[in-house]
Write a structure and sequence with these properties.
By secondary structure, this protein is mostly helical. The chain is built from 13 helices and 5 strands. It has a 3-stranded parallel β-sheet. It starts with a helix and ends in a 6-residue tail after the last strand.
Amino acid sequence: VDGCLGSFNAGVNGGGDCATCTIVLGLVDHLTIVYNDTAAHALERLCTFLPGELKTYCKAAVSFLGDNPDVICHALKFCHDDAGQGKCRIYPSKSSLSVPQRALNLLQRHPRINLFLTKSKICEIPGIKEICRIIENVFNNHLPMLDLDQDHFGIETTLRGSSWRGKDCNDFSSQIHPGAHTIQSDSVIDHNCNGIFGMNSATGRPFEDEFCNETQRMGIAVLGDSLSAHFHIPEQWLDASQFSPEAFEHLGFILENELDWPQLSASTGHVNVSWPNIIGPTRSLYARLFDLDHCNHRDYQNIAVNGARSSSMTNIMKTLSRHQKNDVPLLVIYSLVGNDV
C-alpha cells in the first residue's frame, strides 16, 4: 500500500483519480460478497454510511461494476501504467492476463462503457472534486492548509495542522509559533505558544524566567515515511461485515490526515484516544521531552510522508520550520525505514 501511495502522490499511473476509483469500487465489490447483494444495492448501502452531502455524490464515483476494481478503473482510463514505473494493484488478481488486456476485453464486452470515457475525470465530479482537492493539496505541500502567517504552523487539527505540528497560538504573526525564542521573556505575549507568559506579581519576574530560563529547551521533529506518520487503515474499513455508521463516523478526519495518525506516533505522539478506528495511549519521544520540561509544550513537527524515500526527502525537508537565530534548538530524527529497501 505504501508504494502505491507514493506513486499516487507523484501523479504516477493515474494519481488521485486512480486511487479514488479503485478504493471506492473495491469497497462496493466487498459488500456484494458479504451481503450476497447486487452491486447497485451494495453501492447504495455503502453510500448510507458516508457523512453529509457525500451521500448525494457517492454513486457518481462509480460508473460501471462487475469486474476487478483495478480492471474497471483501467477500462475507465482513471488508471494507467506509466512506462518505467512499478505497476500498482490495490486488488491483485490471479488472472494470467494483464490488467490493461483485461480492461480492453471489458470494453469489448461492454461497448456502452465508452460513453463514460468522454465524461469528466472522477475528481471533477461535484462532491468528489472537493475530496480530491484536499488530498492533492496536502499530498503535494505537506504543509498546514490553513496558515495565514506562513510560519508552517496552523490552527486546524487536520490537513497537516496540529496533528502534525504544534498548534499555532497566533496565526497572524510569524514571530509567534511553537519553538520560538521568547521576546522580553514573554512578559506580555506568549511567543513560543507553550502557555507560559506574563509576570509573577509576587516576585516581579516573568514566568518564563522562573520556569524556563534555567532549562535546556529543545523541540523535536521527524523526517520519515509512513512508519513515522503512523499509517493505519481502520480494520473496519477492510471488512465489510463490520461496516456501520460508527465505523465511518470520523471519515473526514481520517482522510484529511492522509490515513495517518501522527498524534499517536512514536516520535511526535501527543494525545491518547479511544475512537472506534484506533486506540491509544502513546508514549512518544515528544511526550517524554514534555514530561521532562513543560516549557517544550507544542514544540513538535512530524514531517513524515507516506511513500517517502531518500530521493524525495530533499523537497519534503524544506517544509521543516526552524530558524537558527529566532528559534530554540531542534532534535531532528531522519527515519526512512522501508521504501528505499
